[in-house]
Amino acid sequence: MSINEEIIAVEEEIRKTPYNKATSFHIGRLKAKLARLRDEVTKKASSKSGGEGYSVRKSGDATVTLVGFPSVGKSTLLNKLTGAHSEVGAYEFTTLDVIPGVLEYKNATIQILDVPGLVKGAASGRGRGKEVIAVVRNCDLVLFLLDVFQPQHYQVLTQELYDAGIRLNQKHPDVVIKKQDRGGVTISSTIELDMPDELIKTILGEYKIHNAHVLIRENINMDQLIDVIMGNRVYVPAVVVANKVDMADEYTLGKCREEFPDATYISADKEKNLAEVRDVIYDALDFIRIYLKPQGGPADMEEPLIVRKGITVGDICDRLHRDFRRKFRYALVWGTSAKHPGQRAGLDHVMHDKDLLTLIIAK
Ligand SMILES: Nc1nc2c(ncn2[C@@H]2O[C@H](COP(=O)(O)OP(=O)(O)OP(=O)(O)O)[C@@H](O)[C@H]2O)c(=O)[nH]1
């Protein structure tokens, strides 16, 4: 049996097994096996491609990947948003390589990548899918572009990315596994868990983890536990945009809206609602503005530094100059992240939107 056949067999068995307390251990083992098999396939696929770079170098403040089936209008949207010259064709697979475009919006420079259509089987290395996956793994936001006539594509696309270890609109589970040399598995949790300890131990056992401290701070399911054990998952935000509304009748549009009430409905070709797409991208990227204030002088309120939410003083040092972290003495912070105006802060201090920052760097 090939790995892909094995995967199908295990998936089938999971689907067929009714979930209850008695079968949960069996299912847990199957899921662990499935995750391992999928990982093997992904690794094989990437080693076959010689590991050579398909990736486009990241530039700007954030990178967005357009993901969609062939001919849904990705090249058209990219061109309209950024003025890049991605070839637009009325046939499938016009995008043969990654085409980067740059969207300048509200002081942010956002790189948008149009990648070859993701087709079923991408995670297993079919078509050019594995290259798309490599790009998606490294981006900051996935923009699913759907054809309003074919919303069912969404399911295929998200499943494809899921199988390749990409988790959309999810946070890394709040679980820490510390492997030990002996002492068995000890589990501590700060909340009540649906999964019994024995099941957690069974799943860990599938990965030959027999001695470990496990700290769990949220009510996770089996899949999330496996994600933590595998350790190579990426967590990426995603938004949905439905295209070609100019051709859609009320019924088609209504059906799509029912399924995707939060999607943005556009016509890339007729430039309808493109401003909304820019806002959706900007908001989903969670940008914040930091105003740099030279010591003793006024802050530069004209050109804030555009960074992502969660950024620390240390990260900002790295961005400004390669020596700043090493020569850093302390920072002064004004704004909502500061306990009081002009609070002294260290490298780990997390900045908020519209904070003012002074860096004191040794000469
Ligand atoms: N009616 C209509 N047609 C559109 C719209 N956007 C794109 N198209 C057309 O759809 C076809 C495919 O568009 P592309 O932008 O090449 O699609 P793509 O997703 O980049 O396709 P691949 O490169 O094959 O992955 C072209 O004929 C476009 O003119 C739209 O909003 N409305």
UniProtKB/TrEMBL annotation:
Q: Has the keyword DNA-binding been applied to this entry?
A: no
What keywords sit in the KW lines? GTP-binding, Nucleotide-binding
The OBG-type G domain extends over 62-286
A molecular function annotated in GO for this UniProt entry is: GTPase activity
**Per the database record, which ranges form the TGS domain?**
286-361
* Xref: InterPro entries: Beta-grasp_dom_sf, DRG, G_OBG, GTP-bd, GTP-binding_2, GTP1-OBG_CS, P-loop_NTPase, Small_GTP-bd
Query: Which branch of life, at top level?
Result: Archaea
Q: Which CDD domains does the record associate with it?
A: DRG, TGS_DRG
Q: According to its UniProt record, what is one Pfam family this protein matches?
A: MMR_HSR1
* Cell wall biogenesis/degradation in keyword set: no
What protein name does the entry list? GTP-binding protein
